[in-house]
Write a structure and sequence with these properties.
GO terms for molecular function: broad specificity oxidative DNA demethylase activity; chemoattractant activity; class I DNA-(apurinic or apyrimidinic site) endonuclease activity; DNA N6-methyladenine demethylase activity; ferrous iron binding; tRNA binding; tRNA demethylase activity. InterPro entries: Alkb (IPR004574), AlkB-like (IPR027450), AlkB-like_sf (IPR037151), Oxoglu/Fe-dep_dioxygenase_dom (IPR005123). By secondary structure, the protein is of the alpha+beta class. 20% of the residues lie in helices and 17% in strands. It contains 8 helices and 13 strands. The protein has a 6-stranded antiparallel sheet with strand order 3-4-5-12-7-10, with helices on one face.
Amino acid sequence: MGKMSAAVGSVATLAAEPGEDAFRKLFRFYRQSRPGTADLGGVIDFSAAHAARGPGPEAHKVVRSQLSLSSVSDHDAHRAGLQPVSKWQAYGLEGYPGYQWHWVKQCLKLYSQKPNVCNLDKHMTEEQTQDLWEQSKEFLRCKEVNKRRPRSLLEKLRWVTLGYHYNWDSKKYSADHYTPFPSDLAFLSEQVAAACGFQGFRAEAGILNYYRLDSTLGIHVDRSELDHSRPLLSFSFGQSAIFLLGGLKRDEAPTAMFMHSGDIMVMSGFSRLLNHAVPRVLPSPTGESLPCCLETPLPADLPGDSVVEPCSVEDWQVCTSYLKTARVNMTVRQVLATDQDFPLEPMEENKRDITSEGVCRLDDENSQVKRARLNPDS
């Protein structure tokens, strides 16, 4: 309790910048926070036995959420690389209405390949970005030996889009910019959505964010999908991050929470259109190392129809080297309602602040595109 009070006091004494709203003030505080100090005392940690409440007079209490146990069979959960739903720990915030190896490898080795779209396409030819994994794996294997080497292409990767490819300039999806959505990720998403009560969820678009330790994700709302009744699913791997969940307006102070490796967040209902951001990725407290949950490989007794595959020792060495200083996040969305088509004419949109609308790309100190004042980039 003393830690939390100290953190609240630190936020309260942080001088607001001219025109700064409550969300931006908290974003700036956590962006500058010091790991291992009272600065993080008010961040909710869902992995703790009793998650603490966040700072502020209107702190949101952590409550256990009920899952639809009968919607996903143990076999289907196993196929997707998940524990049986009965073993999940699901939480909600009051006030707001093992098998990770496969998914890490897919994000780095498979999903980064063409025809999927990535941030490097803007500055490189298609031939140069043809197989980022093959071009990067030897660099990453030698990372420990030569820390002064140039960054590999995988380490320069900031985002990849899947399925309906999000247009960062128009902030829209369209029928003519589509490639097949990965079937394994679609199956995983359908099982998670069904367990949360969203049967019939269709995985139609994905944005993968690749965070370095100096990366942030700016304040934004995911409203570009045409059907907001379906949830947004978020899967985290690698180093932990601080996630800020705010309100409908930026002048509402957000709640801070940790996102650890293996965590899944489902934004649905009222929370589907709330402001959110990632101000900080936290380095491992024990130096460059992996979270302990990533030390266990896939079990040998996978079902014959499993969508997850064993990861070779050689491939996992590359993934390990990458994740020691990085975080990977997959977000999956349903774009269209059942029987809905994209509009023939562009939808009329009012002029608005691009930092709070649409999907926001990652930013880090070396990125070409800045998150707030240009196009919303990791």
